[in-house]
């Protein structure tokens, strides 16, 4: 039986101290600085998620593999992430956020070691797989932990910080990798040593985080396609309709953006490719702070429009070989993902009970990452066959259609998008 959204959930501190969650009635809410600190593990793991992006040109030269193989390496990240989402949300809701986050951080540390010593495509695949599993855990348990620490009266802040932590980390990773690999020795090693230090601080934050474990968790299978309680399907569908095209657009820039830069500029500068990814996710972060007080339907609609415009400019980029237009496409893609992600998380935070929130977050990300894995891989192999210009044009046309459909779905569902009083 599905839980009532109004039923109180008792909690037991995961360290055995008997302290309830900050959101539980009768306990003092955590200070605001803890809400910000609770988002740090999400940022730390997402730094790793894209840290390898500027380094693929080095591995391609040293190991030797095609653009199609590159997108397959990228896709194994999606495979690990989706596999993690099948279990991490449910485990987090039943056993507690810390139970999921600690192994995830340990696996992220292992991924750093594999990346730093990689000399084969197989090693890169393993590292990306480990990274995907860790990311799947933090987008479900980590984001839910931010909401738990924030409590019921700071849900909008929780959604904003959790979403921004994800996209800021995703952009900071490639920027760090680009700068460190160009300026310091051991270009494919240094960034992962730095990342291991960052993950260690995130580990300490999780160990001290004031989160608890529900005393009456939901029932059902431990491994399953994540979902939401009855009555919340509309909110999930609206979030996916905009978030999925947005994150697919940014995934394309991450996987094939360096190839586009090489073709347009004749350069393999890792700082340049890392900076492009950083400004893309910086746009995703900044736009969320800018629109946070707007109605959720407006945020989702604007996200769909931004992703649509990103694909229009992508087609213009490959037809005109214009670097400024490529940067504009990346910025619009970042804004589209940011608004789709914020709108989707806000809808779930406001309607899904705490004992199902991590699973709901996992469901949103499954809906987003499936096309984000399939479409860029298809575009990579298509580009090998018919050229990067034609491959990117086909990809942009398909994704633009999905973004338009998502925006129309949101506009048509105006009465189904709950707004705060």
Automatic annotation (TrEMBL):
GO terms for molecular function: transmembrane transporter activity. It comes from the Bacteria. PROSITE patterns: MFS, SUGAR_TRANSPORT_1. GO terms for cellular component: plasma membrane. Residues 1-28 are annotated as: Disordered. Keywords: Cell membrane, Membrane, Transmembrane, Transmembrane helix, Transport. InterPro entries: MFS, MFS_dom, MFS_trans_sf, MFS_Transporters, Sugar_transporter_CS. The keyword Hydrolase does not apply. It is found in: Cell membrane. Residues 1-415 form the Major facilitator superfamily (MFS) profile domain. It is a multi-pass membrane protein. The chain crosses the membrane at residues 33-57, 69-88, 100-119, 125-146, 158-180, 186-207, 236-265, 271-291, 298-319, 325-348, 360-382, 394-412. This is Putative multi-drug efflux transporter. It comes from Streptomyces violaceusniger. The lineage of its organism: Bacteria, Bacillati, Actinomycetota, Actinomycetes, Kitasatosporales.
